[in-house]
Every structure is written in C-alpha cells, then in structure tokens.
C-alpha cells in the first residue's frame, strides 16, 4: 500500500506540473486542465480516491496547503497598488460582500428551495472568490495593473473572511444544543478570533521582517523560515477560532511583503514555486476525490440557482457596490463577471455540508453538489473568458512582443524612433529628463525615473512588453536591470549590450547578467560613435524571392543586424554569436550606413555620459 501511494503521489506531481506547462504553452488556463485531469483520474477512471488513500491526513494536508497559498498571496499584496485601486477594493471587500451574501441567500432559499440556515451557509461560501484560482488566472491573462489589483485583493482578503464567517454561522445555527447561542456571544467569539489572528499574523510578520533586516537569518533559510512561520501562525490562530488561521497567514504575508526587505524578491519567487506545486496538488486532490453520486442530488432548481448566482447576483453586487468608486464601466464589467471559486470553498463545503445534513437541515444534501458545481463552472467559464473579455474591454496588458529600452542615449532613442515608426510597442526608460528628449520628440513612450524603483513597478504597464534591452554605458547596471526583469520576462528575453573589453573574469557572472545583444564585438562606445558618423536604422523585408542569405549579401560593410520584426509587429532581438533567423514576411532591422557616412558627417561627438 505504501509503494502504491508513493506512485500515486508521484503521478499527481507529474500531472500537476505537466498541466501547468501545457496551459502555458497552449495559452489555456492551467486550472481548467488541472480540474479535468483530477476528474479523469478520480471519478472517471477510478485510479485514485485521495480521501481513502490518505485517510486522516487528507483534510489537514489540504488545510496546510491553503494556508501556504494564502500566505504567498499576501506577499503579493502591495499597499502601493491601493493608490489607484483603494476605493474599488474597499467596496469589493465590504459592500459587495454584504450585497452578495444577502442576494445569494435569498436566491438559495426562494429559487434553490434550501432552508434559511443552509441558504446562509451557501451564501457565505460563495463570498469566497478563491485566490487559488484567481492568482493563476491573472498570471495567465495578464491584465492591466488596476483591474488585476481589484481581483487579487478581493480574492485574497475575502477568502479567509468567508471561511471564518462560515464557522461562526455554523456554530450559531447548528452548534451544540437545540437552542442557538445568543447573537452577541457569537459575534464576540468571532471578534476575539479575528483580533487574535490579526495580532498574531501582524506581530509575527513584523518580528520576522526585523530579523531578516538585522541579518539574524541566512539568505538560504529565509524562504523556508517564512513558510514555516506561516504554517505556525495558521495553526496557533486556529486554536483560538477555527479557520482564523487563514486570516493570520494572510496578514503575515501582507506585513512581510510590505517591509521593503532586500531579499523579498527571492522570498516571493521561492513562495511562488511552492504555491504552483500546492495549487496543482490541491486541485487534483479535490477533483479526484469528487463523488459522482453527489451530482445526482442536483435538480432544475439547483441549476436555476447556479445560473442566478453567476449571471445575476455577482454582477449586481459589484455594479451596485462600486457606484461612485471611480471605476470605469469596463473595469466594473470585468470584475462583475470574474469570480471563480476555489479550494477554500470546496474544503469548507466538504466539512459543513455533511454536518448540516446530519443535523437534519432541509436541503443540506444539496450544499456539496451546489458548491462543487459552482467551482467547476466558474473555473471553466471565467478561465476561458478572462483573457478574451479583458482584450475586448481594453484591460489586457498582454505582451505584444514590444521592447523596453533601459538607458536613453542618442543611439537608443534612434532605435526607439525606428521601432515606433514601424508600429512596434516600445518604451524608453531613464532617470535623466534631458536624455529622453530625442525619444519624446519622436512621439515614443517614455518613463522618467528609475526602472528598478517601486514607483516604476506600479506606474508602468510593463506587462505589455515582452523584451528588454539594457543599453546604458554601465555594464554592471545593465546586468542588474536584466537580473531584475529576468524572472518576469524570462531569461531568454532580457538583453544587454556587450560588456566592455575587460577580461571575462572581471565581468559580471553569466548567471547575473542578460544575454548579449547583437554582437559580442559591438560595445556601447561603438554604437554611439557610429551614430555620430551618420549611421542609421534600416529595415529589410524577407520574401520568397529575397531570402535571408540575399539580405545578408546586400548589407553594407560592418552593418549590424539588431532584431527581427514579425508580421504582428512583435520583435525578437538577435543574440550575439547566434545565427540570424528570419522568414518570408518578416523584417530585419539593421544598423549601418548605406553610403560612406564618415566622409560627409561632422566629427564624432563624445557619447552622452550617464551616472
């Protein structure tokens, strides 16, 4: 049995990561593939029933995984995001929650035929919009920063609150004894639990952050200690009030993530890797454990209730709650539609649905199938529609193959102008206003400031660009910029100019710098000198009759191919010492001179200096 379970768990890990990769490759939400895979290996083929195979460890494993996922979500919640989205977020986690709860409970009672007790429990579970689903969907869809902030903050904040409300409500309507406890006693219990969770999570996060800043923890242990601390505060807060641990873990992540720790980037990446594994595993476990017979309890009234909640209640709650919040109608429409339910909703329903049924509440047997139906439908509907709807509403920051140029010089401004004239998305970033003048006069988008700053992270929609070129005269700075953006864009998409002619042993290590652009023999000084000698940017289209070899033969002496522009105006920078690849319909942008520029050009000026 042990060997069998080991093989099954190994299979789950392989399936989970394979689904993540296939989703990325095919641009399909991985959550959908995970759900379908779980249904296939569980209810359909009967290969694995997690609750039977894992026994008593099944629910604790899911609970700990959810706590870790919420902690990772809390790390990603930056207070800087609230500068633009504060009003909308406040409405979504307060007024929208109350409206959604009331409307859903009324629909569950009058449309679904559930008793008021079961209807209220169902309504509170539906408040949970599921960061285990929304965070992977946001990663895949790549919305603009503000609408993404609405959905992210709502999901992560509402998740623990909804789970806690379910516990309090259950204890009130179905606790021990035939008479419910007084309402003020239930509210006091909830207040104590929430206060304890806030204090425990906040204080633990602050103390841990101070320890990191003081150098009390080595770098290689920071991610692991942060994760263990999240599990610890989750467990301790649950001793005060069940499910309060989710609030504690979330608050710990928020506090730690907003302390400006020097190593926070590494901690976030470590937690993101763990979160991907946990989300994959949890979704496979939950869907594989789904009993097909529970769906037989669904009838037409259940179907009508599900449709009402998805298509009427959620949009109405968002539209009403965000009146006067300064949100454009496009953002309200998107947020009003997107509300996928996830792991916490399933886990809570799996615990309290059978408990209500044992106590004889009418309609309690409907709770579990209703919640799982909502999860599956919202994952599929919202997973497939989020990217499409965002593009239709102009709220998508999908990478269009454009270019970020870090470092404004005469040469890089000229490159940006050439790309802009060819309708390629390009932005030039520099912390000196006068160096951006050439790009500004050419109509190119610019950012005046430090590209590595926190302000740039929130002010720029950098997700709309797929490539980066660090083009300053400082090799170390170029390497730092590339290292900063490599986790976001991918190491194959961050480039820097060839380092100066210092010995290889004196240059930044390969792992700490970007790929070398264009040619290892062409340096910053060369590009600048040629610019003042009259070189320019030229494009050559590859056709069936004029292939790549013919194009190379036609180039002037010493011309430098820079990048390839495809038919969708997406660019691919040419890596040094790698063969140039371009097919029919694509354009090669090269840097050179069609005549003898040196003869008529003014004497070369010194390159602009950069600090």
Describe this structure in words.
This protein is an alpha/beta fold and 611 residues long. It has 24 helices and ten strands. The chain has a six-stranded parallel β-sheet. A four-stranded antiparallel β-sheet has the order 7-10-8-9, covered by helices on one side. It starts with a helix and ends in an 11-residue tail after the last helix. Residues 598-611 have low confidence and may be disordered.
Give a short overview:
The chain is 60% helix and 8% strand. It is an alpha/beta fold.
Write the layout of secondary structure elements.
Blueprint (H helix, E strand, L loop, with lengths): L1 H25 L3 H15 L5 H5 L3 H18 L6 H12 L1 H16 L5 H12 L3 H11 L3 H30 L8 H31 L5 H22 L3 H14 L6 H25 L11 H22 L7 H9 L5 H16 L8 H26 L9 E5 L3 H12 L4 E5 L6 H5 L3 E4 L5 H6 L5 E6 L4 H15 L4 E3 L18 E2 L7 H9 L3 E6 L6 H7 L5 E6 L5 E3 L13 E6 L4 H4 L11
Parallel strand pairs: 1-2, 1-4, 2-3, 4-5, 5-6
Antiparallel strand pairs: 7-10, 8-9, 8-10
Helix pairs in contact: 1-2, 1-13, 2-13, 4-11, 4-12, 4-13, 5-9, 6-7, 6-14, 7-9, 7-16, 8-9, 8-17, 9-10, 9-12, 9-16, 10-11, 10-12, 11-12, 11-13, 14-15, 16-17
């Amino acid at each position: 049995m042990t060997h069998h379970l080991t093989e099954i768990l190994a299979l789950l890990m392989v399936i989970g990561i394979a689904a993540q990769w296939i989703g990325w490759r095919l641009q399909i939400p991985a959550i959908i593939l995970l759900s379908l895979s779980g249904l296939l290996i569980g209810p359909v083929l009967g290969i694995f029933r997690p609750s039977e195979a894992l026994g008593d460890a099944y629910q604790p494993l899911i609970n700990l995984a959810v706590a870790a996922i919420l902690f990772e979500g809390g790390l990603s919640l930056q207070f800087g995001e609230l500068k633009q989205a504060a009003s909308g977020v406040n409405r979504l986690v307060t007024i929208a929650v109350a409206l959604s709860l009331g409307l859903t409970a009324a629909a569950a009672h009058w449309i679904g035929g559930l008793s008021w007790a079961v209807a209220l429990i169902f309504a509170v579970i539906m408040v949970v919009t599921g960061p285990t689903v929304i965070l992977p969907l946001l990663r895949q869809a790549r919305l603009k920063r503000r609408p993404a902030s609405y959905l992210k903050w709502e999901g992560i904040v509402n998740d623990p609150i909804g789970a806690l409300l379910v516990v309090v409500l259950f204890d009130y309507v179905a606790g021990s004894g035939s008479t419910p406890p007084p309402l003020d006693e239930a509210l006091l219990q909830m207040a104590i639990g929430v206060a304890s969770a806030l204090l425990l999570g906040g204080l633990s996060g602050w103390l841990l952050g101070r320890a990191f800043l003081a150098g009390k923890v080595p770098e290689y242990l920071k991610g692991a200690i942060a994760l263990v601390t999240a599990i610890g505060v989750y467990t301790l807060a649950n001793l005060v009030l069940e499910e309060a641990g989710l609030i504690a873990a979330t608050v710990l992540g928020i506090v730690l993530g907003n302390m400006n720790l020097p190593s926070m980037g590494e901690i976030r990446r470590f937690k993101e890797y763990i979160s991907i594994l946990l989300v994959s595993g949890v979704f496979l476990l939950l869907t594989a454990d789904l009993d097909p017979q529970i769906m037989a309890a669904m009838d037409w009234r259940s179907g009508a209730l599900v449709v009402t909640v998805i298509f009427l209640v959620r949009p109405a709650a968002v539209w009403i709650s965000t009146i006067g919040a300064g949100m454009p109608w496009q953002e309200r429409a998107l947020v009003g539609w997107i509300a996928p339910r996830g792991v916490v909703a399933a886990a809570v329903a799996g615990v309290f649905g059978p408990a209500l049924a044992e106590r004889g509440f009418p309609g309690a047997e409907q709770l579990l199938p209703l919640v799982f139906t909502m999860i599956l439908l919202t994952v599929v509907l919202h997973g497939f529609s989020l990217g499409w709807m965002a593009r239709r509403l102009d709220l998508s920051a999908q990478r269009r193959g454009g270019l970020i140029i870090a470092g404004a010089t005469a040469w890089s401004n000229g490159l940006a102008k050439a790309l802009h004239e060819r309708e390629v998305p390009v932005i030039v970033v520099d912390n000196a206003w006068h160096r951006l003048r050439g790009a500004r006069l050419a109509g190119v988008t610019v950012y005046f400031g430090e590209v590595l700053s926190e302000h740039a992270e929130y002010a720029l929609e950098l997700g709309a660009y797929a490539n980066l070129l660090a083009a300053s005269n400082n090799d170390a700075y170029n390497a730092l910029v590339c290292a900063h953006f490599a986790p976001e864009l991918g190491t194959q998409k961050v480039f820097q100019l060839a380092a100066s002619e210092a010995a290889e042993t004196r240059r930044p290590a390969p792992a700490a710098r970007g790929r070398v652009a264009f040619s290892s023999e062409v340096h910053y000084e060369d590009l600048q000198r040629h610019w003042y000698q009259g070189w320019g940017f030229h494009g050559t289209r590859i056709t069936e009759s004029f292939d790549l070899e013919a194009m190379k033969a036609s180039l002037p002496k010493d011309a430098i191919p820079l990048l390839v522009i495809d038919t969708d105006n997406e660019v691919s920078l040419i890596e040094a010492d790698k063969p140039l690849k371009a097919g029919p319909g694509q354009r090669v942008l090269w840097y050179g001179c069609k005549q003898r520029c040196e003869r008529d050009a003014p004497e070369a000026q010194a390159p602009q200096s950069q600090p």
